[in-house]
Amino acid sequence: MLTGLVPLSSGDAFVAGVDVRRDPAALRRVIGVVPQALTSDLDLTGYENLDIYARFFEVPRAIRSPRIEELLKRVELWDRRRDLVSTYSGGMRRRLEIARGLIHRPKVLFLDEPTIGLDPQSRHVIWELLRELRQGGDLTISLTTHYLDEAEVLCDRVAIVDQGRIVALGSPKELKSSVPGSETLEITLDRIVPDALVEKVGALSGVRKLDHAGDKITIHADDGGRVLPRVIETIAQTGATVVATNMSHITLEDVFIQLTGRSLRDSHASGQDARRAMLPRRFS
Predict the structure, then answer these.
(1) Chosen CATH of 180-249 out of 3.20.20.140, 3.30.830.10, 3.30.70.2470, 3.40.50.300
(2) What is the distance between the alpha carbons of residues 274 and 256, in angstroms, rounded to a whole number?
């Protein structure tokens, strides 16, 4: 709907100040779109793919060539500009299509699953490119992804959508901190954990849940960095010694499961994605 491909089901929508319903032509000039499917023309070179899109958007001749060179260098494809896209890898084609979406200097760039199907190396190259774009100009990026580690790394704001309904919206840090006991402390003692110690540690402020087995205690806590010293002090008072500690943080994947009550799944036939992650902040 925000890219003008389908009509609004209800209400109004504005992208970069443009009324999506009333001015679709103006909308297309302020947005760039990189779909999930690879759509670059295999029978054209990388340079020609960008050139034809620049012409579609009526980029002036004097600006067109420098802009194409700038973008191809930015996505590290300048040396392959004369090669047919049919010779490109999946990661190269994805980088080319991100450059294509930027050819007319849009104010908002929509990316739909930009790293799906890519190998880990190509995926991280795309991540670095998106980080650079965030810092390089007046550009808002809206990213749809099924990889919540990707959303956590790239996004300033994340919307988790379940069955077409927003169930959470905020920064990754805000979403993780909204879950009680969002940090896990694992502590190993020099002896079997006594029951008296379990009671004392469980009563400490910030401790949400405590499990123990053998010489190990697992604590789910709020602000684990503050809770851990108090736990160690309490253990020392009983005469036991801490042998090892480990603190881990909740992930966005954990938040998703906590909020929806189920693991990842395919979207329904209606086309609703199980999750949406967005970067709606404008960088300048």
Answers:
(1) 3.30.70.2470
(2) 10
* Rg value, the chain, Cα: 25
d(Cα 107, Cα 104) in Å, to the nearest integer? 9
Indicate if the pLDDT at residue 270 is higher than 80. Answer: no
Q: Please give the share of the chain, as a percent, with pLDDT higher than 70.
A: 91
Locate 129 and state its tokens. Answer: 């490119």
Q: Say whether pTM exceeds 0.70.
A: yes
Can you spell out the DSSP letters for 137-188? Answer: SSEEEEEE-S-HHHHHHH-SBEEEEETTEEEEEE-HHHHHHTSTT-EEEEEE
Listed residue (177, 26, 172) closest to 106, CA to CA? 26
pLDDT tens profile 107-147: 999 999 999 988 898 899 999 989 888 886 689 999 999 89
Q: What is the pLDDT of residue 12?
A: 95
CA distance 22 to 4: 10
CATH class as words, domain 14-174+263-283: alpha beta
Residue appearing with tokens 């199980």: 274
